[in-house]
Specification:
This protein is α+β, with helices and mostly antiparallel strands. The chain has helices at 2-12, 20-26, 30-38, 61-70, 79-84, 139-145, 154-164, 170-180; strands spanning 17-19, 42-46, 49-52, 75-76, 98-102, 114-118, 129-131, 134-136. The protein has two domains: 2-52, Orthogonal Bundle (Arc Repressor Mutant, subunit A), CATH 1.10.10; 72-180, no CATH class. The radius of gyration is 19 Å and the shape is elongated. The chain starts with a helix and ends in a 5-residue tail after the last helix.
Length: 185
């Protein structure tokens, strides 16, 4: 029972998610972790990733789960960052897809709703940050990554809203608004 108390403390602060890495840090063996999962107190959602069975879901749980399922070094990418922060819903045809970037090769089977982006294909300005406790691409990089999906004045609206929420610096705002300018012939 004492193990589950420790698991609960860690998972409650992480969207109800508990990983095998968390278990190792607490000194919980794989065998003990499997036993606890079999009792129904943890639900397996991916390879080495569990969720508390009795956890009240929140609006950002699916983003946290997607990053946890991909594993070490993973972070939200592009449109998913903007949607997490309520800056914009990119398109209705995205069918609930969540974009996650990862610096390493991922061999495990991933849910169909999860789109894996290779970091070598990503042009980021640096290391990921955390928004709402979830590893994420910076807002400036996320806007640049999906600027071609933003239509009409939507890019300016997203940049202005992000600046108003304090998610962009003045310099980043100027740089991103420069993307929206259409050169005249």
């Amino acid at each position: 029972m004492a193990y589950f108390d420790d698991i609960y403390i860690v998972a409650a602060g992480n969207y109800g998610i508990f990983t095998r890495t968390d278990a190792q840090a607490l000194g919980i063996s794989d065998k003990e972790l499997s036993r606890i999962a079999r009792t129904g107190r943890l639900r397996r959602i991916g390879h080495g990733v569990y969720k508390l069975a009795r956890y009240v879901p929140g609006p950002n749980d699916h983003y946290a789960e997607a990053v946890a399922i991909v594993g070490k070094g993973a972070y939200l990418y592009g449109a998913s960052v903007l949607e997490l922060l309520d800056l914009v819903t990119i398109s209705k045809d995205s069918q609930g897809r969540i974009y996650v970037a990862c610096p390493r090769r991922v061999r495990r089977k991933l849910p169909a709703s999860l789109v894996l982006v290779k970091v070598s294909d990503v042009q980021d300005s640096g290391k990921p940050t955390r928004y709402e406790g979830i590893a994420s691409q910076t807002v400036a990089d996320a806007i640049m990554a999906c600027s071609d999906q933003l239509y009409g004045g939507q890019l300016e609206d997203v940049v202005s809203l992000a600046r108003a929420k304090g998610l962009l610096s003045a310099r980043e705002e100027r740089d991103l608004l420069g993307l929206a300018e259409i050169p005249t012939a």
